[in-house]
Amino acid sequence: MRQRTIVCPIIQNEGAYLLCKMADDRGVFPGQWALSGGGMEPGETMEYALRREIREELGDALIINKITPWAFRDDIRVKTYADGTTEEIYMIYLIFDCFSANREITFNEEFQEIAWVLPADLKQMDLNEATRITFTQKGLL
């Protein structure tokens, strides 16, 4: 089983949290709402990997002006690739509180939609299991 270290930003702006609806045909949680983030590459620091993932997935215009390490955890997930193949992966999540100076997003093909969601509205979202655990641990669900 392959192991991946995942950097995961909890991006907040003016009290709302950024959620991304995963593509229907790929990822660990197809079609569900999630936090952005992704795997660290060899030689990257945690902050560099976090900023790279944000830039790749959400565009260059989103300005992250504060990053604070928050928590970590692990689990085993099955990832589905665009070609339909699957892989079981042991994931180590490094989770960061992030604050953005703006809401300018240009998301990539991993997502089909994005939303800035107030804490009171999180319960209505079809959150994936990992995101639900994160928001529960933060006391928001």
UniProtKB/TrEMBL annotation:
Presence of keyword Magnesium: yes
EC number annotated for this UniProt entry: 3.6.1.9, 3.6.1.12, 3.6.1.-, 3.6.1.23
Domain Nudix hydrolase stretches: 1-141
The reaction(s) this protein catalyses: dTTP + H2O = dTMP + diphosphate + H(+); dUTP + H2O = dUMP + diphosphate + H(+); a 2'-deoxyribonucleoside 5'-triphosphate + H2O = a 2'-deoxyribonucleoside 5'-phosphate + diphosphate + H(+); a ribonucleoside 5'-triphosphate + H2O = a ribonucleoside 5'-phosphate + diphosphate + H(+)
GO molecular function: dCTP diphosphatase activity; dTTP diphosphatase activity; dUTP diphosphatase activity; magnesium ion binding
Cofactor: Mg(2+)
Pfam families registered for this protein in UniProt: NUDIX (PF00293)
Alphabetized UniProt keyword annotations: Hydrolase, Magnesium
SUPFAM superfamilies xref list: Nudix (SSF55811)
InterPro entries for this protein: Nucleoside_triphosphatase_NudI, Nudix_hydrolase, NUDIX_hydrolase-like_dom_sf, NUDIX_hydrolase_CS, NUDIX_hydrolase_dom
Motif stretch (Nudix box): 38-59
Record bears the keyword Magnesium: yes
PROSITE patterns, per the entry: NUDIX, NUDIX_BOX
Assembly and interaction partners: Monomer.
Role noted for this protein: Catalyzes the hydrolysis of nucleoside triphosphates, with a preference for pyrimidine deoxynucleoside triphosphates (dUTP, dTTP and dCTP).
PANTHER family the UniProt entry points to: GDP-MANNOSE MANNOSYL HYDROLASE, MUTT_NUDIX FAMILY PROTEIN
NCBIfam families per UniProt: PRK15472.1
Family: Belongs to the Nudix hydrolase family. NudI subfamily.
Name used for this protein in its record: Nucleoside triphosphatase NudI
Organism per entry: Mangrovibacter plantisponsor
Lineage, top ranks: Bacteria, Pseudomonadati, Pseudomonadota, Gammaproteobacteria, Enterobacterales
